[in-house]
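If it is no trouble, can you show me the amino acids of a protein and the tokens describing how it folds?
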Amino acid sequence: MNRDTGFPRADAENDFLRARRQQVLSRLAGWMRRAPDDVNIMLPFDEVVAALGRAGERRLGLEVIALDSIVGSVDRDREFDRRFRPTSGQVRERWQRLALAQRRGESIPPIEVYRVGDMHFVLDGHHRVSVALALGLRTIDAFVTEVLTRLSPEGVRYRGDLLVKDYRRIFLERVPLTGDARRAIMLTEPENYGELAEAVEAWGFRLMQDEGVFLDRATVARRWYEEEFVPVVRMLRQAALIETQTEAKAYMSVACERYRLIRSHRWDDDVINTIQETKRR
């Protein structure tokens, strides 16, 4: 609970000390809980956009945005933590100057942010965000530029989430699925996307050999989904081989087992029965 002294300069100094203490206590609590290292680290804008694939941008102008939607920075991610609390005393002088101005009711310029999905990344105004949060404010004025990405930013909250998104983006470049097919292929382990891409490409190569024609990536992706993935997933459901895992993960696990057991590319009841027996052992 903030206890103002009635002296703005002293209160601004206390604001900074309180923010630093909270940052240190948060790090200590994370260490005691053995929380992942990226929980208190703000998201780096460049890494997020690289993982999702930049498709363009547009200026939206001045808006009022929620402070809790600000999750990252363009280039100042070492000076503040995920909640924009100072990570050292180096920013103290400027921070306290802004806190004093805020307490005196002086005009504070809008910050500048990039918007990716529902997340905001600070381009200019890190200290202003930090002070606003420390003083308990909920919104802030910001000049917003929206960045459009090839992949949806949904599900990105921590730095560790970016690796899965990055591998998924590369997978979809190699296997350009669209619509429902694109949404159906969801994996949680980054390396699985690489393995699945290789499997689809191998399937497409065999298909081209069988038919004696060249097929582009989009055609291979569409036919693999319709002629291989959907029928296999249907059989796996009938055989109760899909439980809590995603359809794509279930497909991968039995596809690998199929190639270990037999040297053909067919799917039938005998193959499913053999896989069921293998899983029971």
The chain has ten helices and six strands. The first strand starts at residue 43 and ends at 44. The chain has a mean pLDDT of 83.
